[in-house]
Amino acid sequence: MRLIKGIKDVIGFFTIIPIKNGDFEGAADHAYLLPVLGALIAVICSLFAVLSFYLFPPLVTGMLVFLVALIITGFNNIDGLADVADGMMVHGDAMRKRSAMKDTRLGISGLVSCIFLIGLDVAAFSELALLGLSIFIKSILLSEVGSKYAMLLISYLGTPSHEGLGSVFLERIGNFQIAAGSILTILLVLLVSFAGQIALAVLLVIPVVLILTLIARRSFGGVSGDVIGACGETSRVAILLGLLAIC
C-alpha cells in the first residue's frame, strides 16, 4: 500500500494528472520512482506519437510529442530551465542570482535558452521519427526515463542552495533512494532497448548532471527545484542527440 501511495504522490507532485490525497513529502520519500514516472509519461506520449506518425509529417509529430511531454509536467521543468538561465546571466553573488531566478518576468537569456532547447528537442524527435516508428517510440521511452533519473541523481549529488521545498526534497534523497532508482532505471532501459547499443545514450545524463551540479554550486550556492527541473530538460535533449548519433 505504501508503494501505491508513493506512486500516487510522485505522479501528483510532478505532473498535472489529478491524483487524490497526493502530498509533497510522500513524493520526496518515494523519489526513487521518478524513472517509473518517466515511463508513464513516455507511454502517454507514445500514444500520441503512434497516431501522429501515420497522420502528419515527422516535424509535426516531433512537435506534438514534445508538447505533450511539457503539458503533462505542467511546464514546470522548462520553467526551471528559464529561471536557471536568467539567474546565471546576472552579475553578483549567489543570493542576487537566486533573486533573479525568482523573478516572474522572463529574461532574454531564459527565453533564448528555452527556444534553443525546444528547437533541439523537436528537431531530434523529428529526425528519429524518420528512422521508423520503433526507434521513435524507444527514443521517447529512453529519453523520458533517463531525464527523470537525472532529476533524481542531481537531487542526490547536490546540496540545497537555500531553505525551501527544494531543500526538503534534496535532504530526503539518500542512499536507498538512489540505489532503488538506479536499479529501476537500468531495468526499464534494458526492457525498452532489449540490451541494444541505444541504451548507451542514457549514460549521457551523467556528465549533464555533474556539469549542472558544479554550475549550480558555483552560481547559486547549490541545487534548487529550478535546477532539478532544468536538469531534466537538458538531460532529455542530451539523450535524444545521443540516440541520433548512435542510430
Please, how many domains?
1
Helical region count? Answer: 12
Identify the overall geometry: globular
Helix vs. strand class: mainly alpha
- Sketch the major β-sheet: none
Report how far apart the termini are.
Answer: 41 Å
Order of helices and strands: HHHHHHHHHHHH
Helix percent band: over 70%
Q: Please compute the radius of gyration using only Cα atoms.
A: 17 Å
Number of strands: 0
**Unreliable parts:** none
How much of the sequence is in beta strands? under 5%
Oligomerization status of the protein chains = single chain
Mean pLDDT: 90
Describe this structure in words.
With 247 residues, this protein is mainly α. It has one domain (2-8, 31-246). Helix content is 76%, strand content 0%. It is built from twelve helices and no strands. The longest helix has 25 residues, at 133-157. It is globular and about 50 Å long.
